[in-house]
Amino acid sequence: MSNKLTHEEQEALVISEDPEHPANLISELCREFYKLGWVTGTGGGISIRQGEHVYLAPSGVQKERIKPEHIFVLPFAQSSVPKPGSKRDFLRIPSKKGLTESQCTPLFWNAFTMREAGACIHTHSQHAVMLTLLHPRDAQSFKISHQEMIKGVRIGGVGKTLSFFNTLEIPIIDNTAVEEDLTESMAAAMEKYPDAPAILVRRHGVYVWGNTWEQAKTQSECLDYLFEIAVKMLLAKLPLVGDN
Amino acid sequence: MSNKLTHEEQEALVISEDPEHPANLISELCREFYKLGWVTGTGGGISIRQGEHVYLAPSGVQKERIKPEHIFVLPFAQSSVPKPGSKRDFLRIPSKKGLTESQCTPLFWNAFTMREAGACIHTHSQHAVMLTLLHPRDAQSFKISHQEMIKGVRIGGVGKTLSFFNTLEIPIIDNTAVEEDLTESMAAAMEKYPDAPAILVRRHGVYVWGNTWEQAKTQSECLDYLFEIAVKMLLAKLPLVGDN
Amino acid sequence: MSNKLTHEEQEALVISEDPEHPANLISELCREFYKLGWVTGTGGGISIRQGEHVYLAPSGVQKERIKPEHIFVLPFAQSSVPKPGSKRDFLRIPSKKGLTESQCTPLFWNAFTMREAGACIHTHSQHAVMLTLLHPRDAQSFKISHQEMIKGVRIGGVGKTLSFFNTLEIPIIDNTAVEEDLTESMAAAMEKYPDAPAILVRRHGVYVWGNTWEQAKTQSECLDYLFEIAVKMLLAKLPLVGDN
Amino acid sequence: MSNKLTHEEQEALVISEDPEHPANLISELCREFYKLGWVTGTGGGISIRQGEHVYLAPSGVQKERIKPEHIFVLPFAQSSVPKPGSKRDFLRIPSKKGLTESQCTPLFWNAFTMREAGACIHTHSQHAVMLTLLHPRDAQSFKISHQEMIKGVRIGGVGKTLSFFNTLEIPIIDNTAVEEDLTESMAAAMEKYPDAPAILVRRHGVYVWGNTWEQAKTQSECLDYLFEIAVKMLLAKLPLVGDN
């Protein structure tokens, strides 16, 4: 860690009266995501990248009770790739004892570096998990077509929006014991599926990103809607692809 | 566009301390609809017509975060029919960059012109979409009877309320790639089914209208209740019509 | 109508800073019930009897937007039985135009007179309606046993609480075209089932009462919980009575 | 009862401007738990132990309307074991008439004495109850593995967190007519299953504890999530243990 900012400069990175400041947004959005059942039991969260600054929530805390002063700030350009277990560069570490940066850090970085995303959301939504459970054990991806909500999703999460007649495809990767160990398989899936706007993690949840926090959030909503209706369709034995 | 109002006159069209002013109502109701799952991911919304003014939300924005200053105001009497893709007359365009009027505009106009409605609501409710998915591919309409909530629905959306013993019938039309392209098939269904209080769009959602915003909202609630219970009944293999 | 109070005296019946005043409670509780899905689309509501005064919401309005000044006040002792369609005595009629007293009035009176209830709640909960739909057409009642939540329900709605080992039984009556026309069949069911704490109305909802508004509300919650879990049990083919 | 504190000293035990004071927390958390459907109809609640003081809600009241002045305070060291029906020592009894301490008192004490827990939560969550109903009548426990949310649960509720590959096991005990009569069977199950973080009560609900109120709450959320998804998996005929 190479933190050379004064305490006042560090505080200024997260204390703002602007409700759209990333530290305020992360706190507010985590409260909203909690109500949606996306981040209960300390799981899930959101990271926002604004230019060269990345804002992160702490690991293992009640996400609906995060305050701006709990937020970590990291330089987007790290002195080394922020691999699992590696030391990272920080601009600000919260003074509250016992806080460590989110275990999703290298996964968020996948979205920032491979898709130039401005925000990445991770949820434990039951719709995402049930969807992976209802797929065969060796399924590589989830596909759905002919749903209006597909139009709210962008190619690769950051490109043009999909059409009603496009088939949305999202890779499913296996879960690992340690969250950070998903880094490589998530990156591999993002390479293999360049058009996918998200990565489903079997028996775990989903990672969704976008150019901005607004696009990451609205795409998370569209995808969660599609996961939910896909679960209902599978249980009702309706095909997910096609318009029969 | 033939906008001849001054900036002050335009602002006065949407800034009001009256909570029942259409610009305030649209903002408040969209927050409520978001909680109901009707307008997540930027989808859905409400338009209110008050005399010769029509109030519209922007397209493709987070509906639960709309503010009165984001609202478009159009004269109800347009110099030409506000067809898909056509230029429209505006009384006020929001100054925030990048906002365009709702893509549902010509669909809302169907309700205003063909039913003299005072408000029209569009939702992506999963109950509406699942209901269309559980109907055969060639089904022209959804029918249900013997439900108390039918009594909250009006003939044609704007006439007398239905009776418990009436059969409610709502046409189902196919979805299109571009929302505006639903204009003609929605109008055709409204002509063919003059008593229907709403139009279901397969794999997409529903349009509901009423004489006032209150009637449009309470009818949307009654219909969404009926869509939800109809889905449950179909999954439980209970007949929707009759009292067996 | 034999209203001899001055305007000021009438207003004093509903305007109070006490949050536990019946006019304030009805407004607050209807907002809460709306969130529970009990009174959407103008359906359902609550009436409170405090000594010789009965407080009623208006008919056919958005229940979550009721204000204390919209509340009707009636003397409990009416000059004639408040039968369906009969003229009633009022202490206060809201000045807002077009408001009429709740169509449930004679049904609430059943609870007040036959059970000496202090409050009666009517909901259109889907759990109640689905439960009636999952019963055979000629079923006279719903029965359930061996559920902890049964312990929150009182004999006849106003007596001692039931035990975990008691079987709760609630009659199911047929719906009618006009809500007031349920008056006699509801009274007949209350006579036939003196221990029942509520009356289910097929394809419509439920009426629940209690000694006080608190007991009416907590019993409505316990019963709605039991209706919901009974629906789940029936769909999973689990028996409702017994502990197998 | 051996209460020797003055009235002022008693009030000081529950009146505080600190939102993290146990009396404030119990009130706030019960409101939150109500929204989750965990404590409707007066059921369920939370007790917090802070050093030698135990804070308890009253029995049989609307949990979402508890105020700090309704909280009981007991010395953790009781002059005799707080068995069912036994007299207990109090530091503070609310002055509001008719309040008695929670019927869960001896069950909370099980968690405090056998696990040195700092908080214990009891819910009537339908997911917990349905899960017990979907198990065979003679099942002694519920088991699940390969779920990310398992990682939010601690061994014995107070030890190290579980791994994704661990199998979580929670004993199921039979319900009794009187809540306090669960004391012995709950204690026996806690002895037989020292690693279990909770006790399921058939046809009733669940008890969950943790080192602190935060850990009790986040573990309750993780477990409730697992109960919910386990119910969905059982209904979809998916195995709960293994990764097929």
TrEMBL record, chains A, B, C, D:
Q: Which terms are listed as keywords in the entry?
A: Amino-acid biosynthesis, Cytoplasm, Lyase, Metal-binding, Methionine biosynthesis, Zinc
Cofactor(s) for this protein? Zn(2+)
Q: Where does substrate bind?
A: 104
Q: Could you tell me the Gene Ontology terms of the biological process aspect for this record?
A: L-methionine salvage from methylthioadenosine
- Would the keyword Coiled coil be found if you checked this record's keyword annotation? no
Residues in the active site? 148
Q: Which GO terms describe its cellular component?
A: cytoplasm
Identify the EC number(s). Answer: 4.2.1.109
Which reaction equations make up its catalytic activity? Answer: 5-(methylsulfanyl)-D-ribulose 1-phosphate = 5-methylsulfanyl-2,3-dioxopentyl phosphate + H2O
**Protein name per UniProt:** Methylthioribulose-1-phosphate dehydratase
Question: One MF term from GO for this chain?
Answer: zinc ion binding
Q: Which gene encodes it?
A: MDE1
Question: What family does the database annotate?
Answer: Belongs to the aldolase class II family. MtnB subfamily.
Answer yes or no on keyword Lyase.
yes
